[in-house]
Amino acid sequence: MKTACPLDCYDACSVVFENGKLLGDKTHPFTRGHLCYKLNHYFDYPQLQSAYFEGEQISLEKALDILEEKIKSSQEILHFRGSGNVGKMQSITDLFFASIGATLTEGSLCDAAGQFGIEQGRGKNLILPLEQIEKSELVIVWGRNIGYTNHHILPYLQGKTLVVIDPVKTNLAKNAAMHLQITPRTDLELACMLARFVYMQNKEDEAFIEEHTEDFNFYADFIKSYRMVPTTEKIGVDLLDIATLAELMMEMKTVILVGNGVQKYAHGTEVVRAIDSLAAMLGLFGKEGCGVSFLGDTSLGLEDPFRVKARRVPKAEVDFGAYDICFIQGSNPAVTMPSSKRVQEGLKKSFTVVFGLYSDETAQLADLVIPAKNFLQKSDIRFSYGHEFVELMPKLQENENALSEYEFTKEMMGRFGLGELKAEEEYIEIFTQQLKKKGDYFVLPSYEELPYKEGFDESFCFIDEVEDEFDMLQEGYYLITPKAKNAINSQFKRDPYLYVPLRSGLHDGDRAVVSSEWGEVEMEVRLLAELRDDCVLAYAGSAINFVTPPQTDQHGNNAIFQEVKVKIQKVKE
Ligand SMILES: Nc1nc2c(c(=O)[nH]1)N[C@H]1C(S)=C(S)[C@@H](COP(=O)(O)OP(=O)(O)OC[C@H]3O[C@@H](n4cnc5c(=O)[nH]c(N)nc54)[C@H](O)[C@@H]3O)O[C@H]1N2
Ligand SMILES: Nc1nc2c(c(=O)[nH]1)N[C@H]1C(S)=C(S)[C@@H](COP(=O)(O)OP(=O)(O)OC[C@H]3O[C@@H](n4cnc5c(=O)[nH]c(N)nc54)[C@H](O)[C@@H]3O)O[C@H]1N2
Ligand code: SF4
Ligand SMILES: [Mo]
């Protein structure tokens, strides 16, 4: 029986469930028969078997009674939904919470800054189909750790010239033709330098610029405002390497795979827009074997029955302590939100309800825990932000001890007299009906073999200014906080260490206090030769969010985990 991995991952694997085992679908063109650690060890992480109130086991019925009563006697209710499972049915709970006047969230902890940057330039953030990556000659992996987060795409990079832009010497970087190990948060400057080399040689795509873009002259002035020598010094790589990469881009069919890493900053929108502007100058949109692929917008052109109007607060800034009830679904904010101390104190202050799979840190702080069904125990459908394929996720198992998001919503709508939901399968059908077909497979409603072939809805709009007030010279290390190999954010096998450069004066096994203006935390140290001397690294899912800023980017939609420098102090034995 086939289903799909529910996790928030580029790959969206097609899964075969056989004799109680999860296997990679051999026939699927992208999954190609293998999964990863997370699904291979899915059953090693025990699912909640019961509801809990103040630490005591209670029945599901009783849990819902308590929730109903509590909602009826409360004013301010927060519905905070994360990405523990990215199936479309997960957001059905929005219907209930919007109807009772709860506050929902806007923006994200993830990719909203980059998404906005792309929309400002191209209008729409279309997904680059795999066949265009296959047809390319040069692949630039820019702030995406493909070996960990997107490894099913590796076969598509075979035989291409590979360039990696990353402050860390990742395994992919070690195998690339070129690795630009730049200073963190200098990607915008690098994009401008590359554009300057193209411009100096008059190699911009004039016909494309004329037909599909506007205000190129302002962009030309903007890139010229970045002076070669000081900017290259700031980026921290050899000018000749930048010139060489520009040459390659001028000559070859180029695909740029942009990851989350470039945009965890206050100016994240502008960074992604600057990369897009470089691509537009070279005419990389609407051409075979070319394109820029960020985390694509899966909601494009989709009629979504769960889209609601509601009062919303920026997700990364949520003050949990300001609500009477915080209903947390599919998320572990005690670990994954910035500024963990503030988050944990807020959660303790309010009446916290967790609707999830595990007894994670947030569940342990919660007053009421409601167990959710896992992806095998309910019906759903999932899209991918990394490729065009869509997968159905039929219900394959029973579980009397937990609720699906549909069941929860239906029950609560009933209790509050808010009307009937459609049947579960009808909702799935609303999504399925909108899909396109490619061979035997479903693909996104917005799928086009060659995106932007007919140009953009409105002319491409180049970047021509940026505000960046971060003081790069302040004391401390840059913080790099990417995704761990065997975890998905806080789920599965986390990597708890603080990785430091060889010259930090610390040793493996030392304990160190990492601190910033936002907080501090003690962690165990590991040396990592792959780091620049000015960086430390701690993965998502570690305790590092004690030091990250509880703020959003300049446009107010995204977390900025890396907009900070940190100090390291060895703890004496
Ligand atoms: N330092 C640092 N922090 C980060 C990041 C980073 O790179 N560095 N990345 C950020 C990013 S990109 C993201 S997307 C966020 C993600 O952060 P979260 O949204 O918090 O995601 P997870 O940690 O995967 O949340 C997992 C919880 O979802 C629950 N869950 C799983 N499946 C289901 C289900 O089917 N139903 C229900 N109801 N619950 C379920 C489980 O109980 C689990 O504990 O983290 C952000 N935090
Ligand atoms: N194994 C695994 N897979 C995952 C996840 C997971 O937790 N674990 N999480 C999923 C989720 S929610 C998301 S959003 C995606 C994100 O997956 P990716 O897009 O790969 O994002 P990250 O892992 O956050 O960071 C990617 C790279 O950016 C680099 N980087 C950091 N700062 C900078 C910078 O300033 N400039 C440049 N050029 N590079 C920089 C980091 O060193 C890292 O190698 O992965 C998904 N897949
Ligand atoms: S986490 Fe990603 S790579 Fe692993 S099985 Fe799920 S979709 Fe595939
Ligand atoms: Mo994410």
Automatic annotation (TrEMBL):
| Gene Ontology MF term list | iron-sulfur cluster binding; metal ion binding; oxidoreductase activity
- Domain of life assignment: Bacteria
What span is annotated as the signal peptide, if there is one?
Answer: none
Please name the taxonomic classification of the source.
Bacteria, Pseudomonadati, Campylobacterota, Epsilonproteobacteria, Nautiliales
Which positions fall inside the 4Fe-4S Mo/W bis-MGD-type domain?
1-48
Tell me which InterPro entries the record gives.
Answer: Asp_de-COase-like_dom_sf (IPR009010), Mopterin_OxRdtase (IPR006656), Mopterin_OxRdtase_4Fe-4S_dom (IPR006963), Prok_Mopterin_Oxidored (IPR050612)
Give the matching CDD domains.
MopB_CT
What keywords would UniProt list here?
Iron, Iron-sulfur, Metal-binding
User: Per its record, how is this protein called by name?
Assistant: Anaerobic selenocysteine-containing dehydrogenase
